[in-house]
């Protein structure tokens, strides 16, 4: 019998392998914020097992849990049965989009992207007062959140590059919808191709991006193979800054939030810490860190689709910051900054910013 | 479901405390066992008063109530196999009090074991019985199953640490039992009737736990054996040597192989491996004990004995041990994880018996367990779609139980009876004991609404 849904073909074995031990409940950020087992990875696997066995059809009632996962990967990291839940969730969401049972927050995303070239339906591509050059040894790719939502973080990153006298250029970038793969869509090969052409046209030897998700996309997605094959060095801003000397230090107590896309998904833990410790030796770790880091709640479409629970997840992360006694929470992902800053309570006196913003401020004060 | 009952439930717990959504019914249909059945609905109470009102309603309407913690239990005790209302206690998760002076912690049932562990750590204290599922499992669930863990041989199980309870009985009355004094000889020990009662006698809403100081030092050693029986004899001799290790675990060949597939530990794939930890207040104390253990290892033909000194490696070793059963579960589509427990002198006989039973029924049984308290975890791996294999597995499980009982042991050391072992209750308990248990059940839950069908109490 032919499989009814695509996800069953690829992930049947994994779903069956879930031993229902429930150990994921200890690390799932959605469960942690809601205490509702149906939202936990095990709850999702139980549901999909019934779909797999033909006892249930994918339906609108399941959107509530299947679209409520940040794809942070902490369940997969801790799963003794080796079930890669985020990949399964992404595949199921593709099936759900195909049969028209997508979460309403994401319906029509393809159309928005085709019309505007970004996920926010913004008309104009900002230039951050930087003229785009035809040629430069370094190209900088901002990413959607940095372009349209966290422009201060982007300005700070660019200010650091300027301070370091890096010869770089912004490019006429578009969103290739790589991030929409998390919510059931596919990467748009034409837009990816456009990005690759624009990047390579600059003749750059290094591509820096400020966005961990874009970094992941460039490094791991099939559509960006030509970019990788070109020999260009693709780095996240935190990797680039690690080897730089900013000549400033502070005695402020600083901590760091590992973004899922930079940490668990790509294994970049040390570089951001190296940069931070150079300027802020009073560095403290959060209770959960590195591969065990608690998710900020923004990813996987959770912020768009379930804003209240997304903020509740961020608040749990901020409680760890409070307990650490840090004055500043740094991270490397615009999306994390956005959600964590929004969730911060008035009594929580620490600041939330990107490492670039922090260093940029220190330079201004110096 | 019946709109009148739904309205009454919503009245008690509020609309946000009630669900009959498909996603919840599916997630509440199982625990970590193979059993599965959807409930009618589920509720998330937050106070003793709400629980009392829920039980009162269910008693009047004669609807089953199935209390639930994290659903990490392995014998189906949280599975609503007669339908009914799941009472998810996860939101009653406050640590009410930690008193180092009195050596007690007062908690609600939904507090996760690891949360209490974290709260006690700065004081140098611990709640010793740590089940492998402790990062997710709740203390209410630990109480309901009388959970154990790797520290059982030296530090006992949950029952050794429960001082008092607030519990809602089957007719909705609230009863307080026990005391916050460390000892008491006052009246019947009602508290301990509820420990391990699997939610069949009442719903516990507050627990007074005894806590213990955590010895700060430890020493770890491992030994590998070509013959499972040698390992079994080593266990018996260690436990009668005058030394009580804080942990003494056994891993069989399949378990070692599965761990190697899941970690970088590269354990030697031999017939059996023993892991021992001794603890104390000085390193010298730990060394003295571990050297005794090592001597016994050597006297019983251990092929290799190793001291694990790197703390990261030790942590990795224990993490691997705690993930045994889900890791083994990867090997075949289904499993039955048993927790038979035998007197210490019978560990070798039981280990040998497990091998014989596996061969006799042509089934795959991986073994590991808390050797130090005679608690073994034979995990039978199979494919439920293969009916013949499934029947052989059931026969093998029956033989395991019979053997454990014939050796003077018990059906379950720490997982409880639930649904999985209900059919074997009379193997262990004589008719008078069964009649007494059923009489107690009727006393506290006259209409049999609390987790009915578990522990063979209905008959």
Question: Approximately what portion of the residues of chain B adopt beta-strand conformation?
Answer: 15-25%
How would you sum up the global shape of chain B?
Answer: globular
CATH level-3 fold name of the largest domain in chain A: Rossmann fold
Q: What's the oligomerization state?
A: heterodimer
The secondary-structure class of chain A comes to alpha/beta
Largest interface (CB within 8 Å) is between: A-B, 30 and 35 residues
Known CATH architecture of the largest domain in chain A: 3-Layer(aba) Sandwich
Q: Could you state the CATH homologous superfamily of the largest domain in chain A? A: Response regulator
Number of distinct helices of chain A = 18
Count of individual beta strands of chain A: 8
CATH class designation of the largest domain in chain B: Alpha Beta
CATH homologous superfamily of the largest domain in chain B? Answer: FAD-linked oxidases, C-terminal domain
End-to-end separation of chain A: 70 Å
Task: Lay out the secondary structure.
The complex is a heterodimer of chains A (366) and B (459).
Chain A (H helix, E strand, L loop, with lengths): L5 H12 L11 H6 L6 H12 L7 H7 L7 H5 L6 H14 L10 H8 L21 E4 L2 H5 L2 H13 L4 E3 L18 H13 L4 E4 L2 H9 L4 H5 L3 E4 H6 L11 E4 L12 H10 L3 E2 L17 H4 L1 H18 L3 E4 L2 H10 L7 E4 H11 L1
Helix pairs in contact in A: 1-3, 1-6, 9-18, 16-17
Chain B lengths: L2 H11 L4 E2 L2 H6 L13 E3 L4 H14 L3 E4 L16 E4 L6 E5 L4 E4 L5 H8 L4 E2 L12 H7 L6 H4 L6 E8 L4 E5 L11 H5 L7 E9 L1 E2 L3 E9 L2 H12 L7 E6 H10 L9 E9 L2 H17 L4 E5 L2 H12 L1 H5 L5 E4 L9 H15 L2 E7 L4 E8 L4 H20 L18 H4 L2 H14 L15
Parallel strand pairs in B: 2-4, 3-4
Antiparallel strand pairs in B: 1-2, 5-6, 6-10, 7-11, 8-9, 8-10, 12-14, 12-15, 13-14, 13-17, 16-18, 17-18
Helix pairs in contact in B: 1-3, 8-10, 8-13, 13-14
């Amino acid at each position: 019998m032919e499989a009814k849904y695509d996800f069953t073909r690829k992930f049947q074995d994994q779903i069956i392998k879930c031993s229902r031990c429930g150990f994921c409940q200890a690390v799932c950020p959605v469960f942690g914020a809601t205490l509702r087992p149906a939202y936990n990875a095990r709850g999702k696997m139980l549901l999909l097992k019934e779909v797999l066995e033909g006892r249930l059809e994918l339906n609108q009632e399941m959107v509530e849990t299947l679209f409520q996962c940040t794809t942070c990967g902490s369940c997969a990291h801790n799963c003794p049965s080796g079930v890669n839940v985020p990949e399964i969730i992404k595949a199921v969401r593709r099936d759900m989009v195909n049969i028209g049972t997508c979460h309403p927050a994401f319906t029509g995303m393809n159309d928005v992207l085709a019309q505007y070239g970004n996920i926010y339906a913004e008309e104009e591509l900002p230039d951050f007062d930087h003229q785009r050059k035809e040629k430069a040894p370094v190209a900088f790719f901002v990413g959607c959140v940095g372009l349209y939502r966290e422009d201060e973080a982007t300005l700070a990153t660019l200010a650091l590059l300027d301070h370091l006298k890096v010869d770089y250029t912004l490019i006429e970038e578009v969103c290739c919808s790589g991030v929409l793969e998390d919510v059931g869509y596919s990467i748009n090969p034409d837009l990816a191709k456009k990005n690759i052409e624009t990047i390579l046209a600059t003749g750059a030897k290094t591509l820096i991006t400020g966005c961990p998700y874009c970094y992941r996309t460039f490094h791991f997605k099939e559509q960006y193979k030509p970019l990788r094959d070109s020999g260009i060095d693709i780095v996240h801003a935190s990797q680039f800054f690690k080897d730089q000397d900013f000549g400033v230090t502070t005695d402020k107590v600083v901590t760091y939030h590992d973004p899922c896309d930079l940490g668990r998904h790509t294994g970049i833990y040390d570089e951001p810490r190296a940069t931070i410790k150079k300027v802020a030796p009073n560095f403290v770790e959060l209770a959960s860190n590195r591969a065990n880091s608690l998710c900020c709640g923004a990813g996987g479409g959770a912020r768009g689709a379930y804003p209240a629970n997304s903020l509740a997840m961020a608040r749990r992360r901020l409680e760890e910051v409070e307990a650490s006694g840090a004055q500043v929470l740094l991270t490397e992902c615009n999306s994390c900054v956005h959600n964590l800053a929004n969730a911060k309570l008035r009594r929580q006196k620490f600041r939330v910013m990107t490492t670039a913003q922090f260093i940029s401020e220190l330079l201004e004060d110096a | 479901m019946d709109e009148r009952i739904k309205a009454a439930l919503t009245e008690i717990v509020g609309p946000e405390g009630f669900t009959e959504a498909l996603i919840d019914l599916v997630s509440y249909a199982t625990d970590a066992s193979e059993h599965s059945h959807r409930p009618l609905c589920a509720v998330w109470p937050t106070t003793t008063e709400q629980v009392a009102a829920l039980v009162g309603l269910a008693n009047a309407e004669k609807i089953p109530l199935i209390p639930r913690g994290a659903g990490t239990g392995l014998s189906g005790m949280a599975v609503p196999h007669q339908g009914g209302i799941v009472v998810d206690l996860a939101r009653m998760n406050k640590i009410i009090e930690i008193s180092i002076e009195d050596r007690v912690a007062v908690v609600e049932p939904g507090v996760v074991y690891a949360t209490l562990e974290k709260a006690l750590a700065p004081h140098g204290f611990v709640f010793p019985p740590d089940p492998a599922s402790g990062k997710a499992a709740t203390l209410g669930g630990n109480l309901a199953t009388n959970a154990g863990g790797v520290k059982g041989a030296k530090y006992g199980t949950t029952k050794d640490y429960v001082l008092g309870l607030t519990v809602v009985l089957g007719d909705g009355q609230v009863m307080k039992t026990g005391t916050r004094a460390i000892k008491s000889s006052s009246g019947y020990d009602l508290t301990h009737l509820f420990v391990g009662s699997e939610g069949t006698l009442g719903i516990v809403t507050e627990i007074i736990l005894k806590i213990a100081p955590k010895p700060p030092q430890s020493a770890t050693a491992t030994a590998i054996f070509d013959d499972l029986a040698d390992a079994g004899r080593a266990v018996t001799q260690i436990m009668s040597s005058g030394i009580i290790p804080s942990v003494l675990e056994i891993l069989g060949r399949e378990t070692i192989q599965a761990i190697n597939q899941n970690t970088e530990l590269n354990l030697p794939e031999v017939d059996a491996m023993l892991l021992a930890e001794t603890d104390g207040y000085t390193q010298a104390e730990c060394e003295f004990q571990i050297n005794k253990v090592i001597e016994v290892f050597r006297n019983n033909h251990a092929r290799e004995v190793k001291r694990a000194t790197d703390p990261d490696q030790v942590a990795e070793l224990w993490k691997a041990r705690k993930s045994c059963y889900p890791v083994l579960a990867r090997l075949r589509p289904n499993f039955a994880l048993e927790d038979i427990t035998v007197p210490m002198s019978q560990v070798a006989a039981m280990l040998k018996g497990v091998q014989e039973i596996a061969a006799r029924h042509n089934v795959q049984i991986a073994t590991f367990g808390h050797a130090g308290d005679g608690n073994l975890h034979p995990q039978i791996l199979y494919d439920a779609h293969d009916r013949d294999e499934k029947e052989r597995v059931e026969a093998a499980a029956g033989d395991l139980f019979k053997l454990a009982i014939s050796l003077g042991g018990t059906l379950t050391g720490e997982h409880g009876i639930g649904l999985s072992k209900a059919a074997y209750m009379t193997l262990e308990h004589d008719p008078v004991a069964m009649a007494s248990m059923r009489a107690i059940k009727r006393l506290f839950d006259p209409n049999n609404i609390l987790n009915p069908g578990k522990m063979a109490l209905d008959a």
